[in-house]
Amino acid sequence: MDKQISRLQDLIDTSKFTVVITGAGISMPAGIMDMQHMNIPEVMQITSTIVLRTTPNHYYKLMQKAFLKAMFVTGPSITHKKIADFEKRGMVQGVITTNIDCLHTLAGSQMVAEIQGSFGVNKCLNCGQHYDDVHIWNQGKVPRCQKCEGVIASFPVYTHIGLSDVEYHRASKWISQAELVIIAGSKGNYGGYFNNINPEAKVVQVNPQSTSFDNIAVLNIRKNADDVFRLLK
Question: Could you give the CA distance from residue 60 to residue 69 in angstroms, rounded to a whole number?
Answer without folding.
Answer: 11
